Amino acid sequence: FDMVEMNIKGFELRKTNVKPDLFDWYDNPVRPADKTDDWLLVPVNVKKDVENFMVWTNGKKSYGGVTLRKYGKGYAMLLSSFLILHPSFDGGWGDVPQITRFYHNLVMFIMGIKKYPTGVDPWPDGKKAVLAVTLDDGGKMSMYQLTLNSLLERVPSLTFFVTGKLDPKILSYIKKFKQVEIGNHSFNHPFFRNLNLNQSIAEIEMTQRAIGKSRVFRFPYVNYTSEGLYALWTHGFKYESSIRVDHLNTFKGAIFPYNLVFSFGKNLITTNLIELSPIKSDWFFYQKIYADNYPLKERIASMKAFKSYLETMWSIIKEARGMMVQMGHPMYEGYNKEFLKPLLEFLDEVRAEKNIWITNLGGIYDWWSELTNVKVYVEEQHNQVRYKIFNRNPKEVKRFSIWIDVGKTAVTPRLKFSKSKGYYTLERSANGERVHVIMTIPPGNSSVTIKF
């Protein structure tokens, strides 16, 4: 069909009787008629085999709002307006479960999976979520010593972003720790929005010469620019960590890795540069450390706020099975043992949890790069689900994991591997059981069949 821009002033968005009930939690109308002009692209000249899940209608005319059509072995679907998922229509900010439920049901339907919801786990071994600790430089040697020694007692590795002007003695100290990944943080720590492309390149190249070649970058003040991103992309950087995510206030970043797209001049550039978004840094809570007056009562309040923020963000990200990148500084959280305590207590809590992956940014990037090169095709027949796997990596991928929900009735899966090998684990929740099949998959084609 064709797409035409129409004024839907006075039109309601209404559900139809087409199944499945992807939108069963919405009342009709999904969106009431608007009294103001509102222009949207809507389908016209629609073929007979196109079904409408929702329509824009004013009683006399109607246009497809959500359309479905058979496509290959599955379906193609058009959502003419993401207002369907807009917070003001699904229950308010942070109503993640409804949005998650919609996409879950939608993907399962489009893939033709009738009984067992399934997918590829984002993290190795079916881990529920991942935590990465990162630091930006700043402070005295004693602060670096306190911070690094305390953190590395609790996490196996971390990422440290340093500038080219860092005291060579401090840089040598950091490099003594094999568990520490060194990241580029520019040379002079400038605001990149004040730099042109050549100046951005100079900041990056000078730091590479000073600290050694690095794969990862973080903009000073997390002040990223198109010129800076272009410089990173053209200079072989693999991943970046500046576009901050804060699901309590804004949604700039994401809780999963993603490829960076940015405008440069008249061009829109899609890159293989991966963004690993951090949360707010310790600076937001401890910025008064260097003020003349920081009363004990305020210090205690700052510590409690820091701990509360870490725990709240972690609860959101863990529920979504995502990635949390913590961002700190020796000059703030490492100012003394008192200010470091909230982070250490938080890390102890995470370590006590089951099924959590703690690594550095390089570990996340390497895993995500492998995962990107694995394609999985799903076939469901009666009481079995078969996964055809194509691994485009030049070597075998270990700890690869597929999940499948089997409902509240406990069942015992039987696995049949072809070329791949592995085992399964069970994850129990109020919604039933989730089976994770954890495998080693060779390059090329392999498969696994799950029978119930």
Describe the structure.
With 452 residues, this protein is α/β, with parallel strands linked by helices. It has 10 helices and 24 strands. Strands 8, 9, 10, 15, 16 and 17 form a 6-stranded parallel sheet that branches. It has a 4-stranded antiparallel sheet with strand order 2-4-5-6, with no helix packed on it. Helix 5 packs across helix 6 and helix 8 (296-319) runs parallel beside helix 9. The longest helix has 24 residues, at 296-319. 34% of the residues are buried. Mean pLDDT is 90; it is low at 90-94.
Task: Summarize the SSE layout with pairings.
Blueprint (H helix, E strand, L loop, with lengths): L1 E6 L4 E4 L23 E6 L6 E7 L4 E10 L2 E6 L7 H4 L5 H15 L7 E3 L8 E8 L4 H11 L6 E5 L5 H8 L4 E5 L12 H15 L4 E2 L8 H9 L4 E2 L17 E7 L2 E9 L2 E4 L1 H4 L9 H24 L3 E6 L8 H16 L3 E4 L1 H12 L1 E8 L2 E8 L5 E11 L6 E5 L2 E9 L2 E10 L2 E8 L1
Parallel strand pairs: 8-9, 8-16, 8-17, 9-10, 11-12, 12-14, 15-16
Antiparallel strand pairs: 1-3, 2-4, 4-5, 5-6, 7-20, 13-14, 18-19, 19-24, 20-23, 21-24, 22-23
Helix pairs in contact: 5-6, 8-9
